[in-house]
Write a structure and sequence with these properties.
CATH architecture: Sandwich
CATH class: Mainly Beta
CATH topology: Immunoglobulin-like
Number of helices: 2
Helix content: 10-25%
Strand content: over 45%
Number of domains: 1
Shape: elongated
């Protein structure tokens, strides 16, 4: 009887230990996710692959820009967040593929497709090692997502076990405009 009780106790302890291991082990997505480096607006943030400095955040309700020689106007039901930045590759030529803004709620906003063709965009540009390149990241999002927002940048769209920068944006120092004309207004 005593032997059976000890066996049952050992089996129960084993089940409890296995259950605890199961519940506390991170999932595959967490284990193979990006290697995130934090940064702040106004300071240079670096990963092993590239460096990025966010100069300013400009908020606007209407965006005007040139696309292939034609003037284009884009309004929004939320707000346009235009991030002026300087970026450079470190050891090899690369392009930034993962460009997003993580809002206050944790939702991810990818760079807006409504502004494709804007020559000032940093997305799609080749970054050479040691050569700084200035340009813009442009997002369309609800105004209530700006408090505590972060610019999230990586070489790949969905980074796995590779570098990713998360730069905290300062909404308090943001430049606010009703109309922002890119190419005409100084950025």
């Amino acid at each position: 009887m005593k032997k059976a009780a000890v066996t049952v106790a050992i089996v129960l302890i084993g089940i409890i230990v296995l259950a605890l291991l199961r519940w506390t082990t991170p999932g595959y997505a967490v284990l193979t996710g990006p290697i995130e480096t934090a940064g702040r607006q106004g300071t240079r943030a670096e990963t092993g692959e590239f460096s990025l400095t966010v100069d300013k955040l400009i908020l606007s309700e209407l965006l005007i820009f040139q696309r292939y020689g034609k003037k284009v106007e884009r309004g929004t039901g939320g707000v346009w967040a235009v991030v002026a930045a300087e970026v450079a590759g470190k050891h090899r030529t690369l392009m930034l593929g993962g460009i997003a803004l993580r809002g206050a709620s944790g939702r991810i906003y990818m760079q807006s497709a409504r502004i494709e063709g804007m020559s000032q965009l940093l997305s799609g540009k080749e970054l050479q090692p040691g050569l700084q390149q200035r340009g813009l990241f442009v997002f369309e999002l609800p105004a209530d997502e700006l408090a505590g927002a972060e610019l999230v940048v990586s070489r790949e769209i969905f980074p796995r076990l590779t570098s990713q920068l998360a730069v905290a944006l300062d909404e308090g120092s943001a430049i606010r405009r009703t109309i922002l004309e890119i190419g005409r207004d100084p950025l």
